[in-house]
Amino acid sequence: RRKRRKRFWRASCAEMKHHILDKTFWVYTAIAVACWCVGTGLMFLLYNCLHVGYWIASACNYLVGGTMSYFLNRKYTFHSHDNRLLLLAKYVLHMVVCYFVSYSLAPVVTKFVLDHWTLHAKGNVSLAVGSVTFTILNYFGQRYVVFRSFHQKKA
After folding, report:
1. pTM score, whole prediction
2. pLDDT in tens, 42-69
3. For the chain, how long is the longest CA-to-CA vector?
4. Cα–Cα distance between 47 and 56 in angstroms, integer?
5. Secondary structure in 3-state letters for the chain
6. Between 137 and which of 21, 98, 100, 127 could a Cys-Cys bridge form, CB atoms 3.0 to 4.6 Å apart?
7. With 80 as the cut, is the pLDDT of residue 149 above it?
């Protein structure tokens, strides 16, 4: 009985790894890198050069990178032909949740870890942590919530 559970667990992990790291993941990753460069580049330019505040700089990253991500992923990653209005509504809701979770947690974590750093340095690290967290949450949300029908048809 114990051996059966072990084999089941290994098979489940292998299947899960294969499912998560399929072609969709790699196409999404390429698009995410492009969107991340554009959005994050804009965010750090606004925060460091134009001295725009944390929330406005991160929101610009979210808006520019998110818009770019929606159109590219809908067309090239998930090949979605679903109702565009419903899809857009799900995407916007998903992005808002990811944004507030990522960029609200990042300053809290950064504050404790980088206690003796300057406020500006903490802001930069916090923006980076929020950006990475946002990208990870965004992938899973787009794949399993927003563009879910693509995977149901494919399976």
Report:
1. 0.73
2. 999 999 999 999 999 999 998 999 899 9
3. 64
4. 9
5. CHHHHHHHHHHHHHHHHHHHCCHHHHHHHHHHHHHHHHHHHHHHHHHHHCCCCHHHHHHHHHHHHHHHHHHHHHHHHCCCCCCHHHHHHHHHHHHHHHHHHHHHHHHHHHHHHCCCCCHHHHHHHHHHHHHHHHHHHHHHHHHHHHCHHHHHHHC
6. 98
7. no
